[in-house]
Amino acid sequence: MAQYDRSLLEAALIGYEQERQRIEAAISDLRSRIRGSSQSVKEEARPETPARKKRHISAEGRRRIAEAQKKRWAAQKKAA
C-alpha cells in the first residue's frame, strides 16, 4: 500500500464528509417531497363531487357496433 501524507488523508476525509452531507441533504429533500406530494396530490386529485357510475352498454348497442365494424371490415376487404 502506498504511503500517503497525513494532511492528504485528512483533506480526503473532509471532502468525503462534505459529499456525504450533500447526499444526505438531497435524500432528505426527496423524502420530504414524497411525503408532501403524496398527500397534496391525493387531496387535489379528488374533487368533492362523487364519482360517476360505470356505464353499461345494452345488447342492442353491442349488436349495432358489431354490425358497423363488420361493414367497415367488408369495405376494407373489398377495397384491397
Give a quick summary of the entry.
This protein has helices spanning 6-45, 59-79.
Description:
With 80 residues, the chain is mostly helical. The protein has a domain at 1-46. The protein contains two helices and no strands. It is elongated and about 85 Å long. The N and C termini lie far apart (77 Å).
Helix and strand run: HH
- What average pLDDT do the residues reach? 85
The quaternary structure here is single chain
DSSP strand count: 0
Tally the helices: 2
Alpha carbon gap, first and last residue: 77 Å
Rg calculated over all Cα atoms: 32 Å
Indicate the proportion of strand residues.
Answer: under 5%
Derived structural class = mainly alpha
Q: Helical proportion?
A: over 70%
How many strands, what sense, and barrel or not for the largest sheet? Answer: none
Shape annotation: elongated
- Regions with little confidence, pLDDT below 50 for 5+ residues: none
